[in-house]
Amino acid sequence: MKPVKDDCGSYTIPSLRRWRVMEVVTQNGTSSRHVYGHDITNDTDRASTSIEEFNREAMTVTTHSGSIYKLLGVPGRSRGGAKVWKEWCGKHNVVSENDVTDEYFSVDKLFTQINEELYAGLQELADSTFPKRCESCGREYRNAAEFLAATRPVHPDSSGLKPHDDGQMIVDLFRNCVCGSTLLESFGNRRDLGEYGVKRRMRFEDMVGKLVAKGCREEIIRSELLKLMRGQPNDVIRLAKRRNAGSR
């Protein structure tokens, strides 16, 4: 890791993780606010000069010296950040300090943003495989619910699901169209190397990652997301809401 530093002489925009906002009073009675955290752009820990503007929408800080900081993720604490902040306070004769991070970052707003992003992603995932058209008769299925309602399993005693050889996840759903032709819908199929298939897999993995980060078990949420994509009853929303409530 590079040496710790303040923002004087910076030429790149630092992007801070595990950041805090502090209010200080120096020996001469001057009061000011500062941000510190780990700068992933330059792999170092930083403490800013006094804050001139805090943009809550963009989550950026502009200091009186003209430097700009981009704040990433939620506030946090790190040993390196605490060390550079302590050194900064000693260097600038700070006699009192107060953590004011909560004034700039609302936990309730965070959960709202997560929910909006999560639900939008789930809807996109659910809609990503449709509309689907039967090449034999031209019948179009507008969404997963219509696809499952109008088609039938290939065999009466079979779910129509086929796992990949590597056992990673169940992805293939075989159904008979109303005309009798067998249709295949590959949910997250890695054999689809086209741009659309790649984007759909990326969205699937993105949603898995978000829900696992919220406390869901990976094997359970993968199964529930696949149900969502097939238009089947699932517990995705209930699990997400439960984890949100448990995290508050």
Characterization of the model:
This protein has helices spanning about 80-90, 105-125, 145-150, 195-215, 220-230, 235-245, and strands spanning about 5, 15-25, 30-40, 45, 50-55, 60-65, 70, 95-100, 130-135, 140, 150-155, 160-165, 170-175, 180-185. By secondary structure, it is an alpha+beta fold. It folds into two domains: about 5-105, no CATH class; about 110-245, no CATH class. Strands 1, 2, 3, 4, 5, 6, 7 and 8 form an eight-stranded mixed beta sheet that branches. Strands 11, 12, 13 and 14 form a four-stranded antiparallel beta sheet that branches. A two-stranded antiparallel ribbon has the order 9-10. Helix 4 packs across helix 5.
Derived from helix and strand composition plus strand pairing, the structural class reads alpha+beta
* Principal-axes shape call: rod-shaped
How many discrete structural domains?
2
Helix content: 25-40%
Strand content: 25-35%
Report the total helices: 6
Name the helix and strand elements from N-terminus to C-terminus, one letter apiece.
EEEEEEEHEHEEHEEEEHHH
Q: Give the low-confidence spans.
A: 158-172, 187-193
Number of strands: 14
Could you give the distance between the termini?
Answer: 34 Å
Q: Describe the biggest sheet? A: 8 strands, mixed
> What's the average pLDDT?
74
Please compute the radius of gyration using only Cα atoms.
26 Å
